[in-house]
Design brief:
The protein has 253 residues and is mostly helical. The protein folds into three domains: 1-99, Serine Threonine Protein Phosphatase 5, Tetratricopeptide repeat (Alpha Horseshoe); 100-156, no CATH class; 160-227 and 234-245. The chain has 13 helices and no strands. The longest helix is centred in the N-terminal third of the chain and has 17 residues, at 28-44. The radius of gyration is 22 Å and the shape is elongated. Mean pLDDT is 90; it is low at 227-236 and 245-253.
């Protein structure tokens, strides 16, 4: 396996202090090489996940027993849909560190492997109570998806409900949560409610991370052609207008 190329500006010093400290337990040459590949993996995972995976896999080949390496390898494998490999790496990371932060990713890997029951079992372990708020919301989204995989459409909707599902809130997870809720509603054939929550997701999605606006357009297009028409569009349109007014910024802002 040939080493993927390292950008000229990468030294390895870009890594967090705790990661560099862990790498110092290895030989100097191995630590320096792995550090550079870990930096490249982190740099590329969003824009070129395949190349990010190549860097993380190469780092794992050199130092497979380090937690920071197994974490990077697991997350990069997840990014390219290598569910079994990601699950193995993240299990190892959890065993080495005791960290619960990647439990939602591990549960989603179980879904990817066609094992929604195992995803639900993992979501029910006591350690889930230790998740940070953002990760806890991600776990709710995974649970909802697992319920959908099992054909439990109403349960998929209920799984996302809770205090975080508040249109007035603007948390880091709001857009993703609102979007997931809208999608679950739509799958459960609750079209009008789904549209309102796609609107809420679009309004909360300042960074354009979801395609909520496109989903609204799709729903409107099918509505205009008569597909999926409802008995009470006027009342739902009024509710939507109230929602838009709620989120409308004051003039001059």
């Amino acid at each position: 396996m040939a080493a993927p190329p390292i950008d000229e500006d990468v030294t390895g010093a870009e890594l967090p202090r705790e990661t560099r400290a862990e790498l110092r337990t290895a030989s100097k040459s191995a630590a320096e090489a792995v550090a550079q590949h870990l930096v490249m993996a982190g740099r590329l995972i969003d824009d070129d996940p395949e190349l990010a995976y190549a860097h993380a896999a190469f780092a794992r080949r050199i130092l497979p027993r380090l937690a920071c390496v197994r974490e990077a390898a697991g997350l990069c494998a997840y990014a390219v849909g290598k569910w079994a490999e990601a699950l193995n790496d993240l299990r190892t990371y959890r065993r080495l560190t005791g960290s619960v932060e990647h439990l939602p990713v591990m549960a989603d890997c179980e879904r990817g492997l066609g094992r929604p029951e195992r995803a639900l079992s993992l979501a029910a372990v006591p350690d889930v109570a230790r998740l940070e708020p953002t990760a806890a919301v991600e776990m709710k989204i995974v649970v909802s998806g697992a319920r959908r995989d099992l054909g439990q459409l109403d349960a998929a909707v209920v799984a996302l409900q809770g205090p975080q599902l508040d249109r007035d809130r603007r948390d880091p997870w709001s857009a993703r949560l609102f979007y997931a809720y809208a999608d679950a509603l739509l799958t459960a054939d609750r079209r009008d409610e789904a549209r309102l929550w796609f609107v809420a997701a679009a309004l909360a999605d300042a960074d354009g991370d979801t395609d909520a606006s496109e989903r609204i357009d799709e729903l409107d297009a099918t509505q205009s052609t008569g597909a999926g028409a409802t008995d009470g569009p006027r009342a739902d349109r009024q509710a939507e207008e109230q929602l838009l007014l709620l989120f409308e910024e004051p003039p001059g802002q």
